[in-house]
Design a protein that fits this description.
There is one protein chain. The protein is built from 2 helices and 26 strands. A hairpin with a 5-residue loop joins β1 and β2. The longest helix has 13 residues. A 14-stranded mixed beta sheet has the order 3-5-7-9-11-13-15-17-19-21-23-24-25-26, with no helix packed on it. It has a 4-stranded mixed beta sheet with strand order 1-2-4-6, with helices on one face. It is mostly beta strands.
Length: about 325
């Protein structure tokens, strides 16, 4: 009397059908010595691969999967289930030896996903409203961009390289790592401050296109570029004291450059801020300064009247305006 095939038999049959080299062990597990690539096969579900261990990469991307039930129990390399219709990570391996890519699915949380990832963790372009289920530590990059997150409280507290949470609906950065070794991007959100964000960023810090009224909470030190453009800042107070390369603060509502670093290693961009009438508090050392009142290659090149405090500069501008010769009135003769 024949019954339904066991999960092991189902896995063996599927691997043979796909032409994947494998070996069955005495404990009942099936070992795949290389990669297991079943991407772009139109699959709506996974065969019973729960007893399969993959030495290399497991790739089931670009299918029509709605779940990860039946996924391999272990992968030595990357686990890629991107570009499906997956609604839950239940069934994913607990540990992944490379990257974990679950981007471009229908996930609203990360519960059931791996707790340990040796490479990058990419969950961008889903429907995430929470990062609950994310690992506490990600060895490589963490990308949760293009979701509908209002906070990142349950995200990893430590990353090895980049942390990308742009294009969400974030109202707070509480829960972000204290230090990001490479690139931190929280742009295109609804942030009014940067409190809770990383205190040190090794490469670039981008917080443009938010609703920032203050830079309170910004990193104290940014290794290369800092960009706070397209916000509603009236000053640069509480911004980073040290920026290794370029500093961008274009398209704000700046009335003063108070809070700008004393020195930056590259270009200071401060265009589209009509309220800045004095460069008294601009960085004293830079490669180039670009602002609405001019472009300068050194602080010493700035005209003396622009180096006066705001009040004096504004007064000089008013005096200059008042000394203009008035136009003659045209008198209509009877």
């Amino acid at each position: 009397m024949s019954g339904n095939p066991s999960p092991t038999q189902e896995a063996e049959e599927a691997l043979k059908r796909w032409g994947i080299p494998h070996e069955k062990r005495e404990d009942g597990t099936i070992f795949v010595p290389g990669d297991l690539d079943i991407s772009n096969k139109g699959l709506k579900s996974l065969p019973g691969l729960g007893m399969v261990e993959v030495q290399g990469v497991f790739d089931c991307s670009n299918n029509q999967l709605t779940a990860l039930k039946g996924a391999p129990r272990k992968t030595g390399g990357t686990f890629n289930c991107a570009y499906n219709c997956i609604e839950s990570l239940a069934g994913a391996p607990a540990e992944v030896g490379g990257d974990f890519r679950c981007n471009s699915n229908e996930l609203d949380n990360l519960e059931g996903g791996p707790s340990k990832v040796a490479g990058d963790y990419d969950c961008n372009s889903n429907r995430l409203t929470t990062l609950k289920g994310a690992p506490a530590v990600v060895a490589g990059n963490f990308n949760c961009s293009m979701n509908i997150l209002s906070n990142i409280a349950d995200g990893p507290s430590k990353v090895g390289r980049n942390y990308d949470c742009q294009n969400n609906s974030l109202q707070t950065l509480k829960g972000a790592p204290a230090e990001v070794p490479s690139y931190f991007n929280c742009g295109n959100n609804r942030l009014a401050s940067l409190e809770g964000g990383p205190r040190k960023v090794g490469y670039s810090y981008y917080c443009g296109n938010n609703k920032l009224l203050t830079l309170k909470g910004a990193a104290d030190e940014v290794g290369q570029h800092f960009n706070c453009s397209s916000n509603m800042l009236a000053s640069l107070e509480h911004g980073p004291a040290k920026v290794g390369e370029n500093y961008y603060c274009d398209n704000n509502k700046l009335q003063t450059l108070k809070g700008a670093p004393e020195e930056i290693g590259g270009i200071f961009h401060c265009l589209q801020n009509d309220g800045v009438v004095s460069l008294h508090l601009a960085p004293k050392r830079f490669q180039k300064l670009e602002c609405d009142v001019g472009v300068f290659n050194a602080y010493e090149d700035i005209p003396s009247y622009l180096r006066m405090p705001e009040e004096a500069t504004a007064g000089a501008a008013e005096l200059k305006t008042s000394l203009k010769v008035p136009r003659l009135l045209k008198i209509r003769m009877p």
